[in-house]
Specification:
It is elongated, with a radius of gyration of 50 Å. The protein is 77% helix and 5% strand. The protein is built from eight helices and two strands; from the N terminus they run αααββααααα. It is mainly alpha-helical. The chain has three domains: 73 residues, Orthogonal Bundle (Arc Repressor Mutant, subunit A), CATH 1.10.10.10; 70 residues, no CATH class; 90 residues. Helix 1 packs across helix 3. The longest helix is centred in the middle third of the chain and has 37 residues. 5% of the residues are buried.
Length: 247
């Protein structure tokens, strides 16, 4: 009859629902698991057990006895490999893993070589650099030409000493005046509590630019070097004199 046919179709739909759920989840199920998952479709534990048994009998799912309980699971496409197949597969995996590691190592070496080459200049860049150095060298040679052509004059020790004395005097004078002004200016600033720049603007003080101040430090080092040289010369002269008197 129509009613019985509709009932069979309904049960068939429910069985398909159970089958689809098991295949989608692809894990072991028992009747209670199916009922919990598909209860909204009207499939209670009793019906779930019935559909599971039917699906297992028709070969659409697998069943495994676990004590008093039957566990159902989806059909697996791949068959389980035997021991020989497993061993062969493991050997193949090991071989391919070693080959992959070797390929990665070779790739890293090539990348390192590529990075090293990227830092080196190309031939056009080398030519540009060489041309620039050649022009720079030519300019320096042009500046040296007059000096090389000039015979020059020897500077006597007396003239050198006078020049050094004048240089030392000027540097010490500059350094002394700068120190005295700084001490006095700092004292005034402490007493009036005004910012250094503001006070300088008000009284019209101009400080040495940084490059000039740096040059003073260089000159002081030159003065110290001259004094050390003279001290060494004086000790040598005294030693020679004492040695001559001893003879």
């Amino acid at each position: 009859s129509f009613e019985s046919a509709r009932g069979r179709d309904g049960r068939s739909d429910m069985a398909d629902t159970v089958l689809q759920h098991i295949n989608a989840q692809n894990r072991p199920f028992n009747a209670q698991n199916v009922a919990d998952a598909l209860g909204r479709h009207g499939i209670k534990k009793g019906l779930a057990q019935k559909y599971l048994d039917q699906l297992a009998e028709s070969g659409k799912i697998r069943v495994k006895e676990s004590g008093k309980q039957r566990v159902f699971y989806a059909l697996q496409d791949a068959e389980v490999m035997d021991a020989e197949q497993t061993k062969a597969m493991e050997l193949e995996i090991k071989t391919k893993t070693a080959a992959l590691a070797e390929a990665k190592s070779e790739l890293q070496k090539k990348h390192a070589t590529l990075r090293r080459l990227a830092k080196q200049m190309t031939v056009p860049q080398m030519k540009i650099k060489t041309d620039a150095l050649a022009k720079q060298n030519a300019a320096l040679e042009a500046r040296l030409a007059p000096l090389r052509a000039s015979k020059g004059e020897d500077v006597s020790p007396e003239t050198l000493r006078k020049t050094e004395d004048a240089f030392i005097a000027r540097v010490e004078q500059w350094s002394g005046r700068r120190r005295k002004f700084t001490d006095a200016f700092e004292t005034v600033l402490e007493s009036v509590g005004v910012a250094k720049k503001k006070m300088a603007d008000e009284i019209g003080v101009e400080f040495d630019p940084e490059p000039v101040a740096a040059r003073l430090g260089e000159f002081r080092k030159m003065v110290d070097a001259i004094k050390r040289k003279r001290a060494v010369e004086a000790r040598k002269k005294k030693f020679k004199l004492n040695h001559a008197l001893a003879l």
